[in-house]
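FIELD: query
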Amino acid sequence: MDGAAPYLTDSVSVTDTGQVLGLLCALANAADWFSGHWYLPALAIAAATAAAETAVRRLAAKASAERMALELVPNRHFEPSLEEIFRRGVQLARASTSMPWWAPRRSKAVQIRLRVDGSSPLRYRIEGPAGGQRLLSITPFGPDVTVHTARPITDKPRTHTVRAEFVLRGRPTAPLREVPLSPDPLQPLVDAVSDLRAELGDLAELRLDIQRAPKWALRARRLQLLSAARRRERREAQRAARWLRQDAAGIEDSLTWQLQQLVSDRSGPGGGRRLVMPPVPRRIEPAEELGKLADDDHLVRVQLLVMCASNTEGRAQARLAQLQAALDVFGGRSRWAMRGWRIGPWRIGADHWPTRRGFERRWKLGHCQPPRANWVRLEELAGLLKPPTVHCRLPVLAASLPTFEFGNPDLLLQGLYRTPDGRQRMVATYAEETLFEVGVGKAGGGKTERALAQAIGWAHAGGGLLFIDPHRDSWPRALPFLAHDHLMDRIALVDLNGLGPDPRISSWNPLGMHHSQKAHEVVEAVADAFASALAWDDASAPRALTILTAALTVLAAVNEAACRAGRPTDQATLFHVRALLTDPAFRAAALKAVAGRLDEETRAWWQTIFPTLPADAFAVVLNPLARLAANPVTRAFLGQPDGVYNIRTAMDTRMVVWVCPGGNGPTDRLVTALLARDLLRAVRSRRDTPENERIPFRAYFDELITLTGAAPETIAAMFEDFRKYKCQVHGMTQLLARLPTPVRLSLLQNASTLATTAGSKSAIAPVTAEWGDNPSPDRVAVMERFEHYVSMNVHGHRVGPVQLRGPHLDTLYAAHTRPRQVPALERAALANAEALPLDQLTSRAATQTSRLTAFLTQHTPALSPPPGLVEKDYQ
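FIELD: result
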């Protein structure tokens, strides 16, 4: 047995050696086989990888097909807090995981789309998993943001398109710059696309994909960063030790050190060479090295893609450069940089092989495959997690404010807008949405010029209008631009200034029945006009109102009878109120003639109440009529039985009527009140016409202070009622504070367009207050002449206030001025108003009482209705 032990030991050694040799031979054979057939495993690995990628892509595409889209529309007062924005970010991060379990991670993302294509200044959309719609539909922003389901967007192909993907460069653990909320962090992006032109096919879109950070990827990234930090510290320690040894060696080789060694005792404790201690690597602090990646809370991965397109060469590239500059605002120790390589003047990025195909797939399907460096915290994205706020200045695009087209009846001129790139365009609003307009500002600021430009454009487009100007300055200013052949038959001038040696005056009978008015409406309109101009009411002047109403009722009945008898030239006028109240013979003839046409209460009043009134009771009624009769112009204008002026016919025939009252004295205010109340009556009478058949008509009131002094309640009622009858009112005034309270409140409440020029801060403060003092009165007060701030309604949304330059007629309509045809237009305007010489009208008015008396005397028997005949038989 003792002899066998060495033999067994040798056998075991030989066996182990054989196994090792066999294993080495197998490995050598395998290595030799792989060296000759390496392509086979490479092909197998590639095939497996391709198959796995194909399966992942198909699953991701299937999951992405069930995405939802929401569009967020903020109002002009949207001003969120940082906490609200942060909560929105948490919602987005949570919604990104609302996918089926089998969905690949690249499809588990929520996308923020900032898009500008000319349809709006900035469209803010959220796209993501369908399961996250209910979570994202209710935002922490409250009622200041409207969320509605968005339709898919289909883009037309553009000729030139550029693409870019942005990655975080700089220190990977450093945060982006903390951008304040005022001004809006989106402002640089909005400014970058403010000169976008939809007619050139310009398009710019930025997409930010947010994905919750996977734990394993975060751990791997942390290990990578810590390992890199340790290697960096070791390298620094080695470099420091190397420099330390070099310094020590240099000192020992120096002459000074050698002499010191010679004179010193080498056997002492300080003798011999120096002992150099290498520096120890600095201890790595994970929190310091990991930075924003140290904590797991609210950490997300992001993917930032940008695409710009245009049909004009060079515009897409310029737009991308502008957006790249805008993203620099967010840069600090970490910044957004375009991914790719630059070789001389060329950049190889998302527009080139091999990354373009992947970019387009992610763009189309909404897949998120961010670079490994794109880790951010939600606080860093605060500027992109919300729509534009009140602190963001949005540009005015052609889609939000159309460009004015001369002769287009659907557009109403507003002013000249200067775009951020320096271009200018004349902007307009839609006529059907511009219901009431208010212009405020100091004298000479351009209010009337702007209104004239608007009215002239509306007239050339075929629209009808009434322009009331107490000062008459607007008429000669507008003449050269209205002197066109196609307008000659539509323009009428009612001028009560009596200018020139032989003035020509039109005529109007407020009580005339020859235009088929209703008697009770006419009586009410005239009585209300007197009450408004003279400050009568049921408490202060009940008897005056009663007397005037009773007299007007009788005269309207007389005029009805005259028209039915075919004698419109024998109608009574306002000046016959005096004869009716003071002339017993005339009164008896009139009452006898219309006895059957008056109701029982009116007849009883004349029979029982009127005889008991003292003579001085009529003075309050007769005094204003005496003032009207004393003025030859108003006597001629109101004293004609068959007056021509008929504003209802002007509305229905698209006439352009210029009315110039004589001034702003008591008599002029009474005439203005009569005209205003007649306009209110005529517009309300359009209730007899179906709504779709009512022709739009516009009334321009220059110097509202003067007009409302005569008829405050009437003007207020216009701003409240005219919308129903397709009559729009445009008012201009220097001071809102000087307008009567009912008028001022109705103006501001119903104004679809509100404009102001420069003026004193106290004068324009009521207007800027309607805009939330943005712009402030200080800013508006220092504007240049003809500059306006205007807020408008377009497509049901308020646009502005926008700074516009008021149009100047000589520049805007230079191609349409016809100075040589001005005399012809003046003649045509007077002819259309059937204006006659003042002397002729005055003589006719003086003899009207005798004609009316003769008519009453001749036709009294025939005018008495048979017994039992009711009023409707006369209609």
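FIELD: remark
The chain is about 45% helix and 15% strand.
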